[in-house]
Amino acid sequence: MRSIEDPDIASAVHNITLYPGGKWFGSAGVDDSSRIQCILGEGAAATLGPDFGKARLVVGDVFQLGEVDWIVAGIMRTEGTTFGSEIWVKRFSRIYQPFGKENYT
Q1: What is the pTM (predicted TM-score) of this model?
Q2: What are the Cα distances from residue 38, in Å, to 11, 49, 91, 96?
Q3: DSSP-derived 3-state class of residue 90
Q4: Which of these, 11, 61, 63, 65, has the minimum number of CB atoms within 10 Å of its CB?
Q5: What is the dihedral sign for C-alpha 84, 58, 48, 101?
Q6: Which H or E element spans position 46?
């Protein structure tokens, strides 16, 4: 999992785009239902998919990691890079606290 402050900058630096229908997470990092917005690499989407009876997760799918609900905002075009196994999220305390990690600050 990679927590980032600004997905526009990170995607430009790493030359990452999203598949059609996806969008980068918002400035709050959560949707209207307080689910954490995430961007999945192609490999991560494929790894999580069978748990939901599909080849891979797609935009709008919701899954639980720990006791936190996550919603897929986008799928990265990673073309065989290591980014395919990543999950990108907004950098904020809700990402760290459920897993007993120190705050990022």
Answers
A1: 0.84
A2: 14, 15, 11, 14
A3: strand
A4: 65
A5: positive
A6: helix 42-48
CB burial of residue 27 (10 Å; 0-12, 13-18, 19+): exposed
Q: Please, what sign has the CA dihedral across residues 23, 93, 3, 1? A: negative
How far apart, in whole angstroms, are the C-alpha atoms of residue 79 and residue 92? Answer: 28
Long-range contacts (CB closer than 8 Å, 24 or more residues apart) made by 10-18: 10/88, 14/83, 16/76, 16/77, 16/78, 16/83, 17/76, 17/77, 18/74, 18/75, 18/76, 18/77
What whole-number distance in Å separates Cα of residue 105 and Cα of residue 100? 15
- Beta-bridged to residue 13, according to DSSP, are none
Question: In whole angstroms, what is the distance from residue 71 CA to residue 55 CA?
Answer: 17
